[in-house]
């Protein structure tokens, strides 16, 4: 904001010279007896004095212009530096966004790789066979278990009894429960074998030695159970043949080694059981049925942490860019104002510092209020001061508006 000097403003106000603005406000209130309507006239004198104090001689104007030019050059250099920082920040922002996008794609690839499998057809076939073998083993161990516990019915082989459930039903509910639950023992042993194989896979991933002793114990127990069932069935079939007169020889233990029924039980029971156990492990360990592995979870967690760090960095970059933009606008305004001031000084137009003017007006009104409160009752002084402050605010608003109009 600037104002042109004229002849009326070149002479100093002798009346106000040598006293502070607060003292001038006190004296002005005393002369006008704190009349609020007199405030405007005295404020015009304050403004005139303010302009006189702002006036410089020829050398002072040259020094002020030189100082302003130096500040403008410095601030322009700061602007260029900020512009360079903004460009660098924008590139860093783009790079950080690309890094986040790349990590997001990496997460997608890991999830996809963990769930994908090219063994779809083998998995379906293996699962189907596993299901059928489960049903087969259930029927096999139901029949063979019934024959081992309750004897072989004449006319059948023992390990396959088509009427096992009806025969068990004739003996009571407990026998039915036993025949239904007995195969579960072998299915449970098979599941334990699957669990042991999975633990060995985990040990292999951790580069630790595998442990097969538990699997060996499970297989030995199953083999002994099948051998016992096979022995009882072979003995029962031989007894039926002896009772039917098909053989005259009583059963002896060493006959087990030449009895085909014994070997059939081992082949149709234990061997099929081992095959079923490995197929069960294949099916249950397939990626289609597995949740995310611990390794994949850890990798995804690490990637998520990296993304969070990158996003924090991105937020800091964006915040810095906003601050740089704000600083750039502030510097641009400063440069613009100072360039206007330079033009004003060179053409005899004195810039008006509105903030400084408001400060001097505040000092003046402080002195005015000191006299008013010191010479009137509190209620009367408050009333006079309130009106005076309103008049002062109106005067200051009009003065600033007039300055804005003059600079346009």
What does this structure look like?
There is one protein chain. The chain has 408 residues and is an all-alpha fold. 78% of the residues lie in helices and 1% in strands. It is built from eleven helices and two strands, in the order E-H-H-H-H-H-H-H-H-H-E-H-H. It has helices at residues 21-32, 39-54, 58-115, 120-150, 164-170, 173-205, 213-243, 260-284, 294-346, 354-375, 378-407; strands at 2-4, 349-351. Helix 1 (21-32) packs across helix 10 and helix 4 (120-150) crosses helix 7 (213-243). The termini are close together. The relative contact order is 0.16.
Instruction: Give me the number of helical elements.
Output: 11
**Helix/strand order, N-terminal first:** EHHHHHHHHHEHH
Distance between the termini: 9 Å
Radius of gyration: 52 Å
Walk across the major sheet and give the strand order.
1-2
Number of strands: 2
Mean pLDDT: 80
Task: List low-confidence stretches.
Answer: 1-14
Shape: rod-shaped
Supply database-style keywords.
408 residues; two-stranded antiparallel ribbon; mainly alpha; 1% strand; disordered N terminus
């Amino acid at each position: 904001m600037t104002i042109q000097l004229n002849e009326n403003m070149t002479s100093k106000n002798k009346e106000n010279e040598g006293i502070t603005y607060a003292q001038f406000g006190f004296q002005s209130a005393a002369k006008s007896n704190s009349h609020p309507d007199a405030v405007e006239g005295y404020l015009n004198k304050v403004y005139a004095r303010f302009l006189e104090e702002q006036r410089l001689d020829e050398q002072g104007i040259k020094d002020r212009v030189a100082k302003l030019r130096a500040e403008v050059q410095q601030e322009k250099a700061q602007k260029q530096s900020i512009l360079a920082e903004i460009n660098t920040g924008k590139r860093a922002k783009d790079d950080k966004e690309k890094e986040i996008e790349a990590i997001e794609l990496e997460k997608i690839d890991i999830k996809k790789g963990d769930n994908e499998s090219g063994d779809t057809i083998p998995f379906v076939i293996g699962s189907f066979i596993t299901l059928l073998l489960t049903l087969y083993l259930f029927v096999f161990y139901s029949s063979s278990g019934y024959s081992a516990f309750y004897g072989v019915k004449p006319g059948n082989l023992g390990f396959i009894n088509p009427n096992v459930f009806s025969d068990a039903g004739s003996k009571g509910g407990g026998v039915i429960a036993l025949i239904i639950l007995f195969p579960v023992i072998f299915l449970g042993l098979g599941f334990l074998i699957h669990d042991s194989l999975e633990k060995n896979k985990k040990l292999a991933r951790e580069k630790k030695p595998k442990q097969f002793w538990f699997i060996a114990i499970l297989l030995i127990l199953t083999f002994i159970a099948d051998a016992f069932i096979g022995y009882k069935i072979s003995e029962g079939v031989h007894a039926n043949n002896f009772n039917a007169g098909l053989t005259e020889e009583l059963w002896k233990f060493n006959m087990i080694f030449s009895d085909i029924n014994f070997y059939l039980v081992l082949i149709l029971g234990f061997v099929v059981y081992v095959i079923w156990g490995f197929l069960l492990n294949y099916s249950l360990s397939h990626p289609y049925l597995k949740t995310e592995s611990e390794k994949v979870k850890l990798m995804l967690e690490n990637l998520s942490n990296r993304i969070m760090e990158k996003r924090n960095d991105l937020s800091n970059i964006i915040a810095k860019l906003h601050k740089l933009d704000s600083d750039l606008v502030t510097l641009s305004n400063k440069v613009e104002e100072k360039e206007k001031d330079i033009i004003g000084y060179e053409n005899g137009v004195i810039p008006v510092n509105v903030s400084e003017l408001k400060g001097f007006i505040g000092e003046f009104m402080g002195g005015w209020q000191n006299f008013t409160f010191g010479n009137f009752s509190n209620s009367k002084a408050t009333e006079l001061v309130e009106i005076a402050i309103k008049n002062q605010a109106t005067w200051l608003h009009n003065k600033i508006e007039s300055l804005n109009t003059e600079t346009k």
